[in-house]
Amino acid sequence: MKQQFWLGIDCGGTYLKAGLYDQQGREYAIQRQALATVGEKPGWAERDMHGLWQSCADTIATLLKRSAISGSQVKGIGISAQGKGLFLLDKNDQPLGLAMLSSDRRALNIVSDWQRDNIPELLYPHTRQTLWTGHPVSLLRWVKQHQPERYSQIGTVMMAHDYLRWCLTGVKGCEESNISESNLYNMNRGAYDPQLLSWLGIEEVFPALPPVVGSSQICGEITSDVAAVTGLAAGTPVVGGLFDVVSTALCAGLHDDTALNAVMGTWAVTSGIANGISDQEPHPYVYGRFVSPGQFIVHEASPTSSANLEWLTAQCGNLSFDDINRAVSALPKAGSDVLFLPFLYGSNAGLEMTSGFYGLQSSHHRGHLLQAVYEGVVFSHMTHLNRIRERFSRAKTLRVTGGPAHSDVWMQMLADVSGLAVELPQVEETGCLGAALAALVGTGMFTSFTQAQQQLTHATRVIHPDPAAWQAYQTKYQKYQLLIEALQGFHSCCASLKNTRGSTL
Predict the structure, then answer these.
(1) Which of 55, 110, 334, 364 has the fewest CB atoms inside 10 Å of its own CB, making it the most exposed?
(2) Considering the domain boundaries, does residue 426 fall inside one?
(3) Do residues 199 and 145 touch, judged by C-beta distance below 8 A?
């Protein structure tokens, strides 16, 4: 009998990845393909939906061919993907324009207006979500206001992995761990809520919302057309899948309130697992459905992480990660006055905040810029980590995943700034593995996600904080916070100036 495998697909902000895993969740092979992000205007972040599906099909076909695995050996498929954003089909089930990604900021004015009208406060008790420019509801409202003809043609509302699952199976659905964080879903009821759409002024799209499906629920099978282009076997079951933050928390071993997970990628995310919703909390935390019944993933997040470094290195001639780490490690810890605000794709300090360096002098060089980016990303993560620790007071462990977890220099900095030991699960692709685990559970190889987690045997490295560096970083972190406060005052003055000028016209 030939060995059996489960396929996990991960659709991220910059790459699509596919991995094959055996019955114990051990990785057999990984294939990656870069994804193009386009934007017709500043602040827009879009993706060609036809191109995304073609990339997915090509990645699967290449993976099977390169690893010499036949489609008949694949017994189940799951998909993990970034959350938020908007993938639309028209009434004829064709992609309706370009997909809008979670980093898209075109709806900034809409969210600002909602904030002025206290809509977030109205929604939060029902959704347990903030309102962000990249949320499906924000983008839907933007389409309604600016592209009414397109809005009238909406047939189906989806997110990234829902679209890819539909491409694979021809069956529509919105996976629960992802759609539960859309502001379309009532967290208390566990279902869509038309009242939410009415408050947001997008009630017309309610009929376009597909059924909510579970993470490990079999939602369809590979079609014969897909089998022909990918090499998969027709009839292979495909499960609902996972929001990538949930997938990462699952692979990091989170299952109760004693450990936290920090994800460092396009988004800075810090998460914990709760057994219920609390009404007495110090901050309006974001909640989402977790994979186990009755559990929720609770997090703080913003698009302020390592994508900032990718942008900078692209401007500097695409330095290698090793070169960057050597340049940063060669400098004294927190030794320069250069500060960086990692807000190229959004901020956690106000919608109006943008990115920038402060404190540059002619004596500084490229290494100082790179070090400041490392520090700025860590400082931004600290905003979320500090808040989440108020909610999870029993948590003593911080497990970190994402690209920066491959840099001991960056991870030592995180340990030094936070004062926590940083644990690094040695999992190459948490998105692919989490998706494969969902498929393993859905096809009956495991009775639950808990059992699947217990089966994982990957190693974990630990980086301990350096007490000697802690005070230097605290001083610089305080300067970072003061700079943000000063710039918030600047933007407030600019808004007042704009209003004053407007009133005299």
Answers:
(1) 364
(2) no
(3) no
Query: What contacts 24+ positions apart, CB below 8 Å, involve 494-498?
Result: 495/352
**What total of structural domains would you count in the chain?**
1
HSE value, Cβ hemisphere, 13 Å, CA-based, for 429:
30
The CATH number assigned to the domain holding 68 equals: 3.30.420.40
Question: What's the 3-state SS for 35-102?
Answer: CCCECCCCCCCEECHHHHHHHHHHHHHHHHHHHCCCECCEEEEEEEECCCCEEEEECCCCECCCEECC
Instruction: Residue count of the chain, please give it.
Output: 505
* pLDDT tens sequence across 405-435: 999 999 999 999 999 999 998 888 899 999 9
Q: What does the alpha-carbon distance between residue 235 and residue 226 come to, in Å, rounded to a whole number?
A: 10
pTM for the model: 0.88
**What are the phi and psi torsion angles at 244 (to 5°)?**
-65, -30
Full residue range of the structural domain in which residue 38 is found: 5-240
User: Any alpha helices (H) in 306-407, and if so which ranges?
Assistant: 307-315, 321-329, 366-391
First and final C-alpha spacing in the chain: 80
